[in-house]
Amino acid sequence: xxxxxxxxxxxxxxxxxxxxxxxxxxxxxxxxxxxxxxxxxxxxxxxxxxxxxxxxxxxxxxxxxxxxxxxxxxxxxxxxxxxxxxxxxxxxxxxxxxxxxxxxxxxxxxxxxxxxxxxxxxxxxxxxxxxxxxxxxxxxxxxxxxxxxxxxxxxxxxxxxxxxxxxxxxxxxxxxxxxxxxxxxxxxxxxxx
Length: 193
Fold this sequence. Notes:
Radius of gyration: 21 Å
Number of strands: 11
CATH superfamily: Lipid/polyisoprenoid-binding, YceI-like
Number of helices: 2
Low-confidence stretches: 3-20
CATH class: Mainly Beta
Distance between the termini: 49 Å
CATH topology: Lipocalin
CATH architecture: Beta Barrel
């Protein structure tokens, strides 16, 4: 009986002493962020674009973000390559098919620290009706306080490469016209909630 009481006391003390780390939410400040991409045209020049409307958040309990979960959603209809005719073409069934697939999403499955401020971010990217795992490189550019708002902020630069063929995107255009590889790049300022 004494053993049972002792075990119960130890378990009770251990359970009450253990407090899970608090999770913090960091929301993207889209006024100071850009979600972009780049593709090579006719094998000689790069065309850049971005999504004007997107949301992103990071959930983490560790100060170094090593347990972070990243979620992102972009409105495909907000694609902007600074050419209205090209943007309209990108929205039709040849490319994004925005009427059918209006959102692009990403959710991380791991956020691994590989150097002092460098991370490998693995996750699932969904667009054009296809979900594929991707691995992105992220650099934490710093954590600071915004002098105007007094909010804690963090800056990340994220890059990676995907193949449009993996997402059945623009399949009627040969790689001599448009590269299969598409570079993803994001510069994002997050605000701690």
